[in-house]
Amino acid sequence: MFKKVLIAEDMDFINSGIKAELSKLGITQIDDVQYCDEALLKLKSASLKNAPFDLLISDLSFDKNYIDQKITSGDELIKVVRKEFPSLKIAVFSVEDKEYRVQTLFNEHKINAYVWKSREGLRELKKAVLQLYTTENIYVSPHVAGSMRKSQAIEIVEYDIFLIECLSLGYLQEEISTILKEKSWSPTSVSSIEKRLKFLREHFNANNPTHLVAIAKDLGLV
Question: Which GO terms describe its biological process (predicted)?
């Protein structure tokens, strides 16, 4: 069984529940943090001491408070952690069930498990941890498993989300082109942006850019 697990969760009572379930599996060292920045620091520190963590369990949403944080969400934390620690097992434990968000975590950030935080969530998390230790298979809660069977959202990439975010902020296509050039993203031409936005409107059956932004917000894309 995993020997060393880190929990990134800002609710004390949930931390306690996770620890209780992990202890039943015989995991002896379980650390928890309430901030994403602290989670990354703990992972780095453990690695430098040649005592790395075997598994990260992270929520996606973290409440903001008076302490400034560079990393403010579980999504951002996982993105950074996956680059720094490519072999670390990562499990998400969250109430979030938006299809695109789940797909992105698996397809782009290569998480190993997604457990929906529900009434049976802790027992399901225990099941997921056991599977991650004994196999190389991913674990997906039944509640969100449908998102992994739908291929249409896989076509939506970070570039597309950026375009929609720019629309939501009221930028014109010419302005978006300038911003893309500054970020060294491509394609940057106005015609390419126009074609991609047309594809996105058709993809989501949106009547106009405003409708596209509204649909994207409903889906949790922006």
Answer: phosphorelay signal transduction system
pLDDT digits (tens, 9 = 90+) for 152-182: 444 577 888 899 999 999 999 999 999 999 9
Q: Under DSSP, is residue 72 helix (H, G, I), strand (E, B) or coil?
A: coil
Which strands, in side-by-side order, build the sheet including 113-116? 29-33, 4-8, 55-58, 89-94, 113-116, 139-140
181-188: long-range pairs with CB below 8 Å, 24+:
185/159
Residues 181-187 have a mean pLDDT of 91
Name the nearest CA neighbour of 33 among 52, 57, 54. 57
Split at pLDDT 50, 70, 90, the class of 200 is: confident
φ, ψ dihedrals at 113, nearest 5°: -155, 145
The pLDDT tens digits of the residues spanning 5-15 come to 999 998 888 98
Nearest residue to 142 via CA among 101, 113, 166: 113
Domains along the sequence of the chain with CATH: 4-149 (3.40.50.2300), 158-219 (1.10.10)
Residue type, position 203, single letter: H
Which tokens belong to 173? 């296509």
CA distances from residue 128 to 11, 72, 168, 221 in whole angstroms, order as listed: 21, 25, 37, 26
- Rounded to whole angstroms, the Cα distance separating 192 from 177 reads 9
> Is residue 116 helix, strand or coil?
strand
